[in-house]
Amino acid sequence: MKIAIIGTGYVGLVSGTCFSEFGHNVVCVDKDEKKIEALKNGQIPIYEPGLDELVKSNVEANRLIFTLDTAFAIKDADAVFIAVGTPTSRRGDGYADLSYVYAAAKELAGHLNGYTVIVDKSTVPVGTARQVKRIIKGTNPKADFDMASNPEFLREGAAISDFMKPDRVVVGVESKKAEEVLRNIYKPLYLIETPMVVTNLETAELIKYASNAFLAVKISYINDMANLCEKVGADIVALAKGMGLDNRIGSKFLHAGPGYGGSCFPKDTLALSKTAQEHGAGLRLVESAIEINSAQKARMVKKIREALGGSEAGKTIACLGLTFKPETDDMRQAQSVAILPALVDKGARVRAHDPHGMAEAKKMMPEVEYADDAYGACKDADAVILMTEWNEYRALDLDRLAETMKGKIFIDLRNVYEPEVLREKGFQYFGVGRN
Ligand code: UGA
């Protein structure tokens, strides 16, 4: 099949590359000249494990092409995927900004020739596919096309395997013909018997938001519970295990921590709650999850302050991990960005390390100092915060850490370490939801 992907951001680049790995002929188009030039030279603009090799091999096999030329990309395509960004609107009202989606629709409309399926891949509020259809019809009344919605469920850091071995593929369509095209595109997944949920446009759009919001609710639930655990002397890690072994609950996304971050959950929960309010069907659970999540970050600042004996002023604090989760260089809505500047504001000196997030972090938090490795960050520090659970922080040499640091305060915001192990090494241990 011939596929065009509009937008080479995270979703567009991973999807286009994986479709080409399936054996389809894929053309990825973007407006950003520098990015397309870099991609042509095999330079990947994001850190995603495994992506660079996959891009390289498919470019070499001539199945994956990068271009600035929309007409070339769309010519003869069986399907055009819109995968441009949908950031939170700059108006600050929580709505998703759809201007890039609509501009892409307008532009592609003029280049359509022969039957094409136009697929919304970007995360877009319910009703967007129908609006895109109106725009294309309005711009090119003769265009022969069907509209579809095919939301993505890719986790950063695990995006390739999420694409290649998904739990399900969701497809919103209005015709059998469009369904057939999408079934053909995803045919390689039939071998591993991936279920395909075929529904109407609105339901597909909403499945994406409902899934992300549910996971966000699950995280906020466990974080709320962690707060109670601290008050009553219970242990959140054991509690989550005890809950998660019930198959109806499941153990995933029950890890207490500094609140969820990233480019998806914060944005999508907000956009969904706005859509719901607009339709007079407010989603109180989702609204609570949003509130709990922002309170959780503030609670972490308080936890750090208390661990330091009531004041962070004049203290040196090491921070291990800056990205919103491991295996990504993405700093969008990272917990560190909410927590570290608040500590510096109160007079702390913060020295941080992250395996892939420091270049971006330096731009966002110039008030923080940066070290070449974990032990460098911890040198003469009064306390260390484990902010993001990168593998390299999971088995720190605790004797070396104890020697390097001035104080012996270990604040484990991801509950990676056993409290007793740290205490045996002479540290005071502070986790989330456990004492
Ligand atoms: C999320 C979804 O998991 C994907 O299915 C979805 O496709 C994607 O958003 C998207 O909409 O594009 P992602 O944001 O990459 O993926 O990351 P997650 O692994 O879901 O983690 C989100 C945040 O929740 C991270 O800050 C993580 O540290 C936090 N988290 C996750 C917890 O605090 N506890 C948990 O138990 C799990």
Describe the protein.
With 435 residues, this protein is of the alpha/beta class. It folds into 2 domains: 2-199, Rossmann fold; 214-430, NAD(P)-binding Rossmann-like Domain (Rossmann fold). The protein has helices at 10-21, 33-40, 51-60, 70-74, 99-109, 128-139, 159-164, 176-185, 201-232, 236-244, 265-278, 284-307, 335-345, 358-364, 374-378, 398-404, 419-424; strands at residues 2-6, 25-29, 64-67, 79-82, 116-120, 145-149, 169-173, 196-199, 316-320, 349-353, 369-370, 383-386, 409-412, 428-430. The protein has an 8-stranded mixed β-sheet with strand order 3-2-1-4-5-6-7-8, with helices on both faces. A 6-stranded parallel β-sheet has the order 11-10-9-12-13-14. Helix 1 packs across helix 3 (51-60), helix 5 (99-109) packs parallel to helix 6 (128-139) and helix 9 packs parallel to helix 12.
